[in-house]
Structures are given as structure tokens and as C-alpha cells.
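Submission checklist for the structure archive. All mandatory fields must be present; incomplete records are returned to the submitter.

[x] Identifier: Putative regulatory protein COPRO5265_1186
[x] Organism: Coprothermobacter proteolyticus
[x] Residue count: 105
[x] Sequence attached
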Amino acid sequence: MESGFLNIGFSSYISVSKIIGIVSPDSAPIRRMIRLAKEQGRLVDATFGRRTRAAILTEGGFIVLSAVLPDTLVSRLEEEEEEEERTEPITEQEAELEEESGEDV
């Protein structure tokens, strides 16, 4: 999960390595954080006019707004992580077993 990008909707992506948290914007403290970030020029609105459903907190102090639910974003992250695990290079031992059996490991 350290590299790559996360699709946050409408062909917009964010670097996975910069994400600190993904939260719902419904609570008063998060709404206050969003307002302050906007005042300070640290808000990125990627909702394309849709309802804000997730606020993504980043390392640099920026907040990125998304129209995609936090649960959906997290499941996309988990899918990406699982795919990375499946595409990891196989070990030498696994390659030998694959050659012997003629099947994929």
C-alpha cells in the first residue's frame, strides 16, 4: 500500500503513500477542519459538484474531498494491496515447483 494511486472518483487519483486517513465529513470537528483548510488554501475539492462523502487527510496537511464513500475508498485500497501481493515476484523455490508441476503456483 506504500506506492501507487487511489481512484477517488471522476478520474481523480491521490498518491497512496501520502494518505493519513479517510474520514466521513459529517462530524463537526471534521467540518471545522475542512473550513480551516479552505481558508488556508489547503483544500482540494475533487467532488465535481457532488455531495462530499469522504475527506482524505494527507501528510502535507491538505484535505482532499471526494464524492466516494470512505468504505468504498478503503475497499479500493485493500483490493490494490491484494493485487500487489498476487503480482509479487515468485521465489526461486516456487519457480522450481512450477516448472516441475507445469502449473501456476
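[x] Structure attached
Curator remark: The mean pLDDT is 89. Residues 70-86 form the longest helix (17 residues).
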